[in-house]
Write a structure and sequence with these properties.
alpha/beta, Nucleotidyltransferase, domain 5, 4 domains, five-stranded mixed beta sheet, 22 helices, about 40% helix, elongated
Length: about 500
């Protein structure tokens, strides 16, 4: 709306806010005459700013955020300027929404055209302070000094990011009993810092998402190195105190710390990330899990992994009493790859029917039980064109019976029949599946017998890819690990949402 209607309407907006009684909701003749394009939405506009009843308070802050109008620029009424040429802004009660500081602490608001910043002049009311040395409450004001506070930025239509700066006039007290001098206490900024507590809290909150350090720094008007330094200083993650009964392990391409692959360890039952290992190697696995006693490792009853011989051989030694489960996703993927490779081969071989087979690839991927009557007719027409394609689809369809089999005996019989059909079909595209399923026979049976899989772990890997894509890669493994443990649901405590308005 701000872009549609020119900034010249700011005076009109200001008149509504500053003098609401001048406008009557039931009489819009003046509004229609002066601003006809606004007349149809005047009721809505009025309610947004002033609420329609006592139960619906003003919604100006949320309205500003939604339409992208800067608070400072909207109220940039240039009728009054101070000696420095700074434009005065009206000090209203809802300024606390933009600063996280109580409005009665803010005595003036100006907009500096040169620095493109909104400057808030802050001064706390005088209060009783206790001497940190002797505990006396008998104090006197020694003097004042001004502290510059970074309050972040706000989005405006004219400027991409408008800085918010606080000029805090802080008192320094002197104890009349012992002569000790000290600063007054305040709820919005810590000692020796320029960033407000709200900015720091917002920074930590943003770091729980996939935002980059640079984006967070730009949003909060700080340097990128400051964001990295605050994150490194604040968060230190050790190893878990204990191990769950079910562990899932998987590798992902992290390219951090000079290593191509990193390893993620999760609790699939509790849906929590336990840790991130720096590399996929025997040394890394043994050095990490040897930190836990044999008694603690004996508590692990189930291990979920993809069909990696590396993980299976190493984890068997570390967890001799655990049952290994093959991830169902990788089993389904092997079957899907076998059928898809046959389809592509037949698509290229049958020049006349190739385009028709290509157009039907989504239909062929769907489970047979989910097809409608019309879709089944189309499917039979596709499969009629190739014997190999028909055999591949029959194998894919029979594999689905493993999901409905109940009990170990039924699952083993169904799996044996499936492998026998694969051998009879003699399709080269299914040879890799036949070798893997034969080598991992017991683990495949466990995959359909037990309710655990690597689904949660694969979802975590997807979020990892998002972070890497946004950051164009993360080189430092320590920060990479800490960010992942912050972003993903982990066993570690996370910071709360940004702090509320300072009291």
């Amino acid at each position: 709306m701000y872009k549609k209607y020119n900034i010249n309407y700011s005076n009109y907006i200001h008149s509504i806010i500053a003098h609401p009684k001048r406008f009557d909701r039931n009489n819009l003749r003046d509004t229609k005459r002066r601003y006809p394009t606004w007349s149809t939405s005047f009721y809505r506009f009025y309610n947004i700013f002033w609420g329609d009843s006592k139960s619906h308070p003003p919604k100006i802050y949320f309205f500003m955020q939604k339409i992208g109008i800067s608070f400072s620029l909207l109220y940039n009424i240039s009728n009054h300027t101070n000696k420095k040429g700074l434009k005065h802004m009206p000090t209203l009660d809802y300024t606390e929404f933009f600063t996280n500081i109580k409005a009665n602490f803010i005595h003036d608001i100006v907009f500096d055209e040169e620095s493109k910043a909104v400057i808030y002049y802050i001064k706390l009311p005088r209060a009783t302070h206790t001497c940190p040395i002797c505990g006396s409450v008998h104090t006197e004001v020694k003097g004042y000094y001004t502290r510059t506070i970074k309050l972040g930025t706000e989005v405006s239509a004219q400027y991409s990011h408008c800085k918010k700066v606080g000029k805090y006039t802080q008192r320094r007290y002197r104890c009349t009993s012992c002569g000790k001098t000290f600063n007054e206490k305040n709820p919005f900024i810590s000692k020796y810092l320029q960033m407000s507590k709200a900015v720091i809290a917002t920074m930590m909150y943003r770091l729980q998402g996939t935002h980059t350090y640079t984006d967070i720094a730009k949003e909060l008007d700080v340097s990128t190195t400051t964001v990295i330094r605050m994150f490194t200083k604040t968060f230190h993650f050790g190893i878990p105190v204990s191990l769950p009964t079910t562990l899932a392990i998987d590798e992902f391409r992290g390219n951090a710390g000079g290593q191509k692959f990193q390893v993620i360890i999760t609790d699939p039952k509790g849906k929590r990330v336990l840790d991130i290992l720096p590399e996929r190697s025997e040394v890394a696995l043994y050095s990490y899990f040897k930190q836990f006693s044999l008694q603690e490792r004996s508590k692990v009853r189930y291990l979920v992994m993809d069909m990696s011989e590396f993980f299976r051989s190493k984890m068997r030694k570390l967890f001799p009493h655990a049952t290994i489960i093959a991830d169902r996703f990788h089993l389904v993927r092997l079957v899907g790859w076998g059928f898809e490779n046959v389809r592509k081969r037949e698509q290229k071989r049958l020049k006349n029917s190739g385009p028709y087979i290509k157009r039907s690839r989504k239909l062929c991927r769907k489970a047979f039980r989910t097809l409608s009557e019309g879709e089944r007719v189309r499917l039979f027409e596709v499969l009629r064109k190739s014997d190999d394609l028909r055999q591949a689809y029959a194998l894919k369809h029979y594999f689905e019976h493993l999901y409905t089999a109940k009990g170990r005996t039924a699952i083993e019989d169904t799996l044996s029949n499936f492998l026998s059909l694969v051998k009879v079909a003699n399709l080269n595209e299914f040879n890799n599946l036949l070798r893997s399923f034969t080598s991992w026979h017991d683990e495949v049976v466990n995959a359909f017998l037990l309710p655990y899989s690597n689904g949660f772990t694969e979802g975590c890997n997807n979020k990892t890819k998002v972070l890497k894509r946004n950051s164009y890669g993360v080189r430092h493994f320590g920060r990479f690990r800490a960010r992942l443990l912050m972003i993903l649901p982990s066993i570690y405590n996370k910071p709360d949402t940004p702090v509320s308005v300072a009291a």
